């Protein structure tokens, strides 16, 4: 089961909600993979992972890009996908998509629940999203998938989030589309 936490702007609680969901499922005895796709890497930081990234590892950097912490009856493994923003372009261009998928698929298969903390305003045509999503779909075909939309409480924020949800759901791959709005 996968929960992808998305929103139109930063600072609305996507990372906090992602960590809370991951810990909640782990406390009930699940093995949870928290996928930190946000460029800031706040979910990773909250769980104690600093420095390494999946993209960096795929490009040859030898820093840990995931960390497992026990939580209640289960565990949360956090994987930081992106290196720090100044390094992203350099490492992403050197990392082969096949190597990213190879490193990531093992983590996916070892989990029962995946929570994905996304950057603001992300769409399915983003190159990194395509790579991560292809690995997820190949490792866990038929897995249930949900998107959780987060907004600030303002009327403008809610309206922007609803428009974003409509656009994102319309661009979702085939059977992964959510309800029509």
Automatic annotation (TrEMBL):
Lineage of the species this protein comes from: Archaea, Thermoproteota, Thermoprotei, Sulfolobales, Sulfolobaceae
Annotated protein name in UniProt: CobQ/CobB/MinD/ParA nucleotide binding domain-containing protein
CobQ/CobB/MinD/ParA nucleotide binding domain residues: 4-49
């Amino acid at each position: 089961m996968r929960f992808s936490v998305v929103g139109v702007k930063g600072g609305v609680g996507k990372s906090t909600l992602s960590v809370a969901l991951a810990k909640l499922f782990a406390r009930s005895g699940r093995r949870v993979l928290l996928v930190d796709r946000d460029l800031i890497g706040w979910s990773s930081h909250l769980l104690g992972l600093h420095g390494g990234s999946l993209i960096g590892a795929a490009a040859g950097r030898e820093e840990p890009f995931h960390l497992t912490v026990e939580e209640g009856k289960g565990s949360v493994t956090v994987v930081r996908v992106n290196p720090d923003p100044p390094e992203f372009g350099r490492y992403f261009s050197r990392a082969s998509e096949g190597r990213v998928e190879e490193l990531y698929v093992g983590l996916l298969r070892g989990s029962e629940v995946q929570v994905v903390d996304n950057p603001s305003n992300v769409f399915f045509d983003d190159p990194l999203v395509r790579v991560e999503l292809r690995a997820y779909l190949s490792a866990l075909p038929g897995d249930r998938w949900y998107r959780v939309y987060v907004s600030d409480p303002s009327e403008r924020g809610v309206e922007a989030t609803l428009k974003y949800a409509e656009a994102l759901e319309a661009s979702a791959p085939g059977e992964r589309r959510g309800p029509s709005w």
